[in-house]
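User: Can you help me understand a structure? I only have the sequence.
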Amino acid sequence: MTEVPELRAVAERHDATPAQVALAWLLEKPATAAVPKSATPAHIRENYGAVDLELDPADVACIDGIDRECRYVDPEAAPWN
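Assistant: Let's start by predicting it. Here is the structure, written out as tokens:
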């Protein structure tokens, strides 16, 4: 998987992980249900960290501006292949 630079930049500003930033961004969206995978206690704790993460309007705009046409995951390298 390729790292998404915009998420990394926001995460570094908030001392968070990119996954926490992505989840926090989703949690702010109206009429959107976020269902994160949590296979380990550490991953569950990481996901909970997104609840307290407050993204400012500049963070949200940065994430909203991510190119949705760019693939960050190579389907051929996906675990289900």
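Now, to help you interpret it: The chain has one domain: 5-67. The mean pLDDT is 86. Let me know which part you'd like to focus on.
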